[in-house]
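Researcher: Here's a chain I'd like modeled. Treat it as a single chain, no partners, no ligands.
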Amino acid sequence: MVTQPMRVVVKDLEKKFIDSRKQEVTALRNINLTIEEEEFVVLVGPSGCGKSTLLNIVAGLLSPSSGEIYFEGLEGNKRPKMSVVFQEVALFPWRTVYENVVFGLEERGASKEEQREKGKYYIDMVGLAGFENAYPKQLSGGMRQRAGIARALAVEPDLLLMDEPFSALDAQTRTIMQEELLSIWNRRRLSTLYVTHNIDEAVFLGDRVIVMSRRPGEIKETIRIDLPKLGRKDEKYRHDFDRYSDQIWNLIRHEAQEALVEEV
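Model: Modeled as a single isolated chain. Structure tokens:
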């Protein structure tokens, strides 16, 4: 139960690991950030900067080597309810859309009535009404992502974590899904941490964009996007939108080019 506005605090976080050559590698260093209640924070940076590692640590899927993550505003210092949406949606192929969406509710022991109520509500919210009984193989990529988002929302998390959820989609579907996500966010106002390589996507979605450096990943700059949450791609905001995109690109251009050379 949230007793006051929830705040995610990452303090002095560092993550090291041993690579395939048995050498110690520092993936993240000196990470300090907060996610405020109802804030949409986007992580962006060149390949290998540790964006996904940071998200996985916040999710509790990885442990930091040092530093801490804590959550203010939760009764008894409990961890918040969290949902994670990955690039690969990983729907259960043997379960229908409805059965996938209510899976988390089942695991938490929700009644059949609550499952039906919330399942219908979130399936309708993501635009999949009429596909409740379809199986994942019968859905397009965008529809599978919608089902994954509905599953994440159905447990009504305090914090939503999204790791490049639209990167495998074609450009048109990706644009539609970005707009759908903003529409959903506008109704649910979830605290969100979102990872992307796409700078325009970061500017389109984020309240704040956190730009990270190459490994060891550090926070290079934090940019507040001072534009209305909805309609950012309207012509009247085009100049400001492009200015933010150029600012972010100029921060990561050199390191992104270096990362590309190393991958060749």
